[in-house]
Model the fold of this input.
Amino acid sequence: MAKFLLCLHLLAVALCIGPVAVAVSMFPRRAKAALTEGPEQAGAEASVRLLQRICHVYALIGLAVPLLGVGTAQAMGVLGNAWLIASMVLTALAAGVLLLFVLPGQQATVDALDATEDRDAETVRATGMLKRLPMTAGVFNLLWAVVLVLMVIRPGSTTGA
Done:
């Protein structure tokens, strides 16, 4: 059962976290282009909306990753190991960065693109958010990279590595 859960957990990581990590990283550049090039750039706006939708949908689907991870850890009998607790804390931090910084920043950008009146004020506000998006995307991806390293190395684990 543990191997089956581990396979499901790894599949969920690849299919859920991977697209979010890529979309989060691509969003700031595409958003800047869409905001600075103006409304005549429908392609840039469409890609911004698509990247935002990917982040929102896969963030919800990504809830399967920690759920399957806890089930896998319980089946393997490693639920109390320090490396796993650290991974769970970092996963929660990554979720917090996504929910508190990345998604609201993306929403502000999409709102700026949607605004027909007072577009300049909305653009200025969204541009301010855009300055933080590359940093928060980097923090989000770095947290997931550390979680991945902890999962592979498993320091102090008795299950072998």
